[in-house]
Design goal:
- The chain has about 1000 residues and is of the alpha/beta class.
- The protein is built from 36 helices and 34 strands.
- The longest helix has 26 residues.
């Protein structure tokens, strides 16, 4: 099989005394880490002692000040010392590298960037100096890939042919050609960061066991890890909510946080931003994003890959960034270049201006629907046009953030004057902004809409007049199912009528007006279908945008002054993306009105949007469960897949923060805001939506007076100082991590156990059983839940057996550092529909040999104990949603050898490959149903026995024990995938 061939062989390659061709082909060359004139054989030999862990400029020379805040990266001298790994038989190889490095093919285009007052900012690899007219037609996003290829070109790993492929993008991109790309840095959040650091710690153990120095395992590119996914809304509607929730967060996650604190000191080049600081993407936007690196006098564009799919938010700042799987991120951390298909680029032209009362959230939900319909999976989307001048940087970031929801790799906004203004607003120094503008202008990466625009080539085109955007929400189960606000009531009733599906609940007509009466803390209360029980201002998508956050405050102010209140059984919350939000809400005087409606600040991090909504009151939960009520959640998030927000909210709608407040006041989604009143004011008169909604002018005025540069500067000057709870946390100072065998949070994973120097070769799949047969749009939430651990689940049983009380279960996301828990949580989503169960919903399956109905984990262990492989059958968009390495690791540890689906989400497909699970696509027009497959068959997959015989996108034959035979495409989409 392919298991760990790509993932673990990177480690094994460091300790072998001979260099296989497959490993040598992956050695990275940091061509740009010195100017061409200063290269020397000794310099390059020094860098290449560790082979697979060599790196580019940004990874070896990383003593770059983080803006003007005085936070410096660790010295590159200590990093080089770690990289000295002498293997005598490689000396000839090193000499070859040194020779190549001293002959940079593009040394002639190195150009100086002068400072306006004299001297120079540094040198850079100049695209205009190539004097190639094709470059002028390239999309700006492709120019970033081109610059990287030129700077890292060595005619060994990155060749002049790779550079030519990118320059000739108009002709090569339709051909799905492969190129190498080296991101400048890696971004992690704690749910995905913990397993990454666990893997690094385990690699160190493996290095020691293989007789080498474990200190060689270090990130070689800057790694920023923001702890933001662990806070839960346990306490809401309270002035003390922030402190109470943080205390619970630390109590639950003390072990995880101590582990990350250990990692921040044990590994070089890793910055950990403590809990309570903000949401990772907002911190990236406001603070971490460089836009342009200046590393020892070499200038180059900032670029980033992150283990959260919404890393794309930074695209709004003109920084190329996108989500990758945990496995890919770890490889990038360790100096490996990414191998990617040169993407097509959709040009999205914006014109006009948003109408009064229309928000950036309405815009992004409209854009998401348009791009989903157009089809942009695997592509970049680049925005341009005169409408750009009407969008703030925060509006752009909102659109970029939801790239995963519309399916694109990136939603890119090139740098222009709006970007520069934002950089100044957020506290970047004048000199830094001057350098950024000067470099990007000189290298043809800056857009000046005051100048005539040269026509750029795009793979396809879309256009949107901003005046056509109207208020809307999305739901009830998918982010791209947009519903105009004026049609919401009719759409809701259609959902009640429709068959069960993405837009249906199949509630009989006679039950649609059912009323569930109950008592809430001594007060009479009632719920109906569509009643709102969770209203959350949350998520990176919107909390970074002052216009919608202050807009929510204005709605709250008007409602409070009119005497409206939110029903006490509705769980309301506000989780800002950074401390800056709190400052401007307080500066504007609007936070007190939000508090009056129950939208007290509950913490700084991802909450409801990722399922960390906490429990709802027991009386409310009982009323929902006992009466089978279709309860609703309304949130300003980016994901609303069923079962994600809360197990008891089957209808989940994405909306702007002001709309979240409006729906909380109404108490139901079953309302026509144009015709029906939201409530009754203190004067006895009906209050309508129009009475509460602020004008764009009102919002702009409060933004102008309340959002100030000093807020950003003071917030981020203090960000690495932590908080008292973090600072009091003790962490061991050691090279190797001391694994606690009794821990239920951190566990030494099995991937590197009994590892040998040579990775195992590939082989096919023989007589595998079907573990699950699922339909379309199976998300990573279905495969690897991040929410609560159900009390009767295999994971719960495991924890109880180890003395963990149910109240201390925490979430699946918080336990991603423990493979035993996460394997039991794989396919544990309570809303997953497995066709083997003939319509029954839940985390169980049929054990085919016996016909027993078992939890998926228990069935998988039966198969493994019998030495029987398994596969998964699936429909379209398998693995959509958040990027989660455990959605690939879990199936591997369950014994799944292949997934046969109609189509895959990009990141998840890559993760499956990285973990050795074979992704296969049915041929167009075929699927399990059309081929007559029930999942009760046994499956054999005929794969070549040699890696050299495997090609990207080749066809293979799948046969069953019932005599069926069909052809599938192996979704190894690049040559690197085969590794």
């Amino acid at each position: 099989m392919y298991c760990r061939a790509r993932f673990a062989s990177r480690l094994a390659s460091m300790s072998t005394a001979s260099l296989s061709s497959s490993v040598s082909s992956r050695v990275s060359l940091p061509i740009a880490s010195q100017s061409p004139a200063s290269s020397s054989v000794s310099f390059w030999n020094q860098k290449y002692r560790s082979l697979s862990f060599s790196s580019s400029l940004q990874s070896l020379r990383c003593s770059v000040p983080r803006w003007s805040y005085g936070v410096d990266w660790k010295s590159s001298t200590s990093l080089r010392a770690q990289a000295r790994f002498t293997v005598p038989v490689m000396e000839r190889f090193h000499r070859r590298i040194a020779t190549l490095a001293s002959e940079h093919p593009f040394k002639g285009v190195v150009t100086s960037l002068p400072k306006p007052g004299g001297g120079e900012f540094g040198k850079f690899y100049s695209l205009p100096a190539l004097n190639d007219p094709r470059i002028d037609r390239l999309p700006y996003s492709i120019r970033i890939l081109l610059e990287s290829a030129i700077r890292n070109c060595d005619n060994f790993l990155v060749t002049k042919n790779d550079v030519e492929k990118i320059i000739d993008w108009e002709n090569t991109s339709p051909k799905q050609v492969e190129i190498p790309f080296k991101p400048a840095r890696v971004l992690l959040q704690d749910l995905t960061g913990v397993p990454a650091v666990v893997d690094l710690a385990s690699m160190r153990d493996a290095m020691k066991n293989l007789g080498n120095d474990p200190k060689k395992i270090n990130p070689l590119v800057p790694v920023d890890l923001v702890i933001d996914h662990s806070v839960q809304v346990d306490v809401a509607r309270s002035e003390n909510a922030v402190q109470a929730n943080m205390e619970l967060e630390f109590k639950r996650n003390k072990e995880r946080f101590a582990f990350l604190k250990w990692g921040s000191s044990a590994f070089h080049n890793m910055l950990v931003v403590p809990p309570g600081s903000g949401i990772v993407h907002q911190v990236n936007l406001e603070y971490l994003g460089r836009v342009v690196f200046n590393a020892d006098g070499i200038l180059y564009p900032d670029s980033v890959v992150g283990t959260d799919s919404h890393t794309t938010m930074i695209d709004g700042l003109g920084v190329a960034g996108w989500g990758v799987g945990g496995i890919e991120a770890e490889a990038t951390m360790l100096g490996q270049p990414m191998s990617m298909v040169l993407p097509g680029v959709v040009g999205f032209k914006l014109s006009g201006k948003l109408r009064d009362g229309v928000t950036a959230t309405d815009l992004v939900l409209t854009v998401t629907q348009m791009l989903r319909k157009h089809g942009v999976v695997g592509k970049f989307v680049e925005f341009y046009g005169e409408g750009m001048a009407e969008l703030s940087l925060a509006d752009r970031a909102t659109i970029a953030n939801m790239s995963p929801e519309y399916g694109a790799t990136m939603g890119f906004f090139p740098v222009d004057h709006v970007t520069l203004q934002y950089l100044k607003l957020t506290g970047r120094s004048d000199e830094t902004v001057s350098m950024i503008e000067g470099y990007l202008r000189a290298n043809k990466m800056f857009v000046d809409y005051k100048e005539p625009q040269q026509e750029r080539a795009y793979s396809s085109y879309l256009q949107l007049d901003l005046t056509d955007v109207e208020p809307c929400v999305s739901g009830p189960k998918r982010p791209h199912d947009r519903v105009p606000l004026k049609e919401m009531k009719a759409d809701w009733h259609a959902c009640l009528d429709n068959n069960v599906g993405f837009k249906g609940f199949a509630v009989p007509k006679e039950e649609q007006n059912k009323v569930a009466k109950f008592t809430f803390h001594g007060l009479p209360a009632e719920l109906k279908h569509g009643s709102v029980v969770i209203a959350a201002i949350t998520s990176c998508t919107n909390t970074s945008n002052p216009s919608v956050m202050l807009g929510a405050g204005l709605v709250a102010k008007k409602a409070s002054e009119l005497g409206l209140e939110v029903q006490p059984w509705i769980k309301t919350s506000l989780a800002p993306g950074s401390g800056v939000v709190t400052m401007y809400l307080q500066q504007s005087g609007l936070q007190k009105y939000l508090n009056q409606l129950g939208f007290n600040i509950v913490g700084y991090g991802c909450t409801t949007c990722i399922g960390n909504s906490g429990d709802i009151d027991e009386s409310v939960a009982s009323a929902i469960s006992e009466n089978d009520i279709i309860a609703a959640a309304v949130l300003s998030g980016n994901r609303n897949f069923e079962g994600r927000i809360h197990p008891l909210t089957r209808a989940n709608y994405l909306a702007s923060p002001p709309l979240v407040v409006a729906y909380a006041l109404a108490g139901t989604v079953d309302i026509d805001f144009e015709k029906e009143p939201i409530g009754t004011g203190k004067d006895g008169k009906s209050v309508y939506f129009k009475d509460l909604w602020p004008s764009n002018e009102e919002i702009a005025e409060v933004v102008q007076s309340s959002v100030l540069p000093d807020m950003f500067k003071s917030t981020y000057e203090a960000i690495t100082k932590g908080n008292p709870m973090w600072n009091q946390l003790s962490a061991p100072a050691s090279t190797l991590y001391s694994w606690d065998p009794n821990s239920t949070y951190i566990h030494d994973p099995p991937y590197f156990k009994n590892m040998t120097v040579e990775p195992p070769g590939p082989h096919g799949v023989k007589d595998a059983y079907c573990l699950l047969n699922v339909g379309d749009s199976i998300t990573t939430d279905h495969i690897s839940p991040a929410g609560s651990i159900q009390k009767d689940s295999p994971a719960a049983k495991y924890l109880i057996e180890r003395g963990v009380d149910r109240k201390d279960f925490n979430s699946y996301g918080s336990r991603r550092g423990h493979d035993e828990v996460m394997t039991r949580g794989t396919f544990a989503n309570i809303r997953i529909v497995n066709k083997l169960l003939k319509g029954e919903v839940g985390p169980k399956t049929i054990h085919i040999p016996t016909g027993e109905k078992l939890y998926v984990y228990d069935a998988a262990m039966r198969y493994k104990a019998a030495g029987q492989d398994t596969i998964v059958l699936a429909g379209t968009e398998y693995g959509s949603g958040s990027s989660r390495d455990w959605a690939a690791k879990g199936p591997l540890l369950l014994g799944v050898k292949a997934v046969i689906a109609k189509s895959f989400e990009r990141i998840h497909r890559s993760n499956l490959v990285g973990m050795g699970v074979i992704p296969l696509s049915f041929k167009p027009g075929e699927d399990a149903e059309t081929l007559g497959l029930t999942g009760h068959e046994r499956y054999s997959i005929d794969l070549p026995n040699k890696i050299s015989e495997i090609r990207p996108g080749q066809d293979v034959t799948v046969t069953t024990d019932t005599g069926k035979s069909f052809t599938c495409t192996v979704r190894f989409d690049t040559e690197v995938c085969q590794e």
